[in-house]
Design goal:
There is one protein chain. The chain is mainly alpha-helical. It has a domain of about 60 residues: Recoverin, domain 1 (Orthogonal Bundle), CATH 1.10.238.
Amino acid sequence: MNWKTLVAAAVAAGFALPFAASADNDKPRSEKAAGSAASGRTTGSAALFDRLDKNRDGFVTRDEARDATELQGRFAELDTDNDGKISRSEMRGLDNERRGAAGSTK
């Protein structure tokens, strides 16, 4: 390799590194620990959960969900174990509903 190629590669890597670090920092802690999702995509409920879980404890409380228009009147319905908070798996119920609604054609 000549020096121009090496310099170009170093400059490109220098520009790419901050973006790669930023993308990793935007992930919730649970996803970082478990690795990225198999598909690499974030579902609607996962994005909503990450936005609402202000203290990053892995649950959305009634207080955290207070201003979420997506959950108005639905908190109790999604809180299937009635513990007063919505877990990530309980929030996936929204994705299941969306898939069911998209699949039904009447």
